[in-house]
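Re: [help] complex structure
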Amino acid sequence: MKKYVSALVVAAATLSATSAMAQFAKPEDAVKYRQSALFVMQQNVGRIAAMVQGKAPFDAKVAADSAAVAEYMAKLPWAAFVPGSDKAGNTKAKAEVWSDAAKFNAAADKMQAEMAKLNAAAKTGSLDAIKPAMGAVGGTCKGCHDDFRAQ
Amino acid sequence: MKKYVSALVVAAATLSATSAMAQFAKPEDAVKYRQSALFVMQQNVGRIAAMVQGKAPFDAKVAADSAAVAEYMAKLPWAAFVPGSDKAGNTKAKAEVWSDAAKFNAAADKMQAEMAKLNAAAKTGSLDAIKPAMGAVGGTCKGCHDDFRAQ
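Output below.
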């Protein structure tokens, strides 16, 4: 029951954050919006990845702050994949984003769920807790890029 | 006293959100990061501005959701104005961002404070409450662009 309620809360929070994004003046703005949100997210995730990989010294506070921003940013891009933005701007989105929307949405949900777990792990201040969560996040990034982003 | 404590809380929250951003692999990433955060913020503010100007129908939920995202995004750009990023990428930042950092930081703080007020106003669901808050936010955008961004 607790898990069920948590899922509802997460769904409501996601809906709340994304419903605000449904309108763009032009398709190029939608492309730039999702790319901007993903870039800010990626920079924060990358900072934690560098610690996990030993390329940067572990800083528990920076990791926790970065994970919090990454989790928030992870909610924003999806509502910007609006119809008509499939060929706009410099998008790399494949047609499958729209033609297989159910799979795409599931991948987006999965990424957000793993990002929430990374944030929870980062809050513990333990690099050992962060490592597997970071691996799971990285897996969702790669999976979605493989299936839905042109190289 | 209450006001003083509130100011401390805001300062701590800002510091927490921005301290995670202090590191970038290269100056171009810092430029792209601050521009990305500002673009996501601007799109959300613009959605509310359109309602205030009568260019879009007032939707209290969209306004509230947009204001919440805008307030969050408003915290992120500042730590990306790192030394060495003054001429990187396609930045339009003037030298005064760094040479008059105290004034720039005050402008950034003022914008965040007005954005928090806009978020509070949007939460009331009243367009009449949103209008003056939106005007104040717009003023901080323009003021900072006039002083610190090349045209």
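Chain B has one domain: 2-148.
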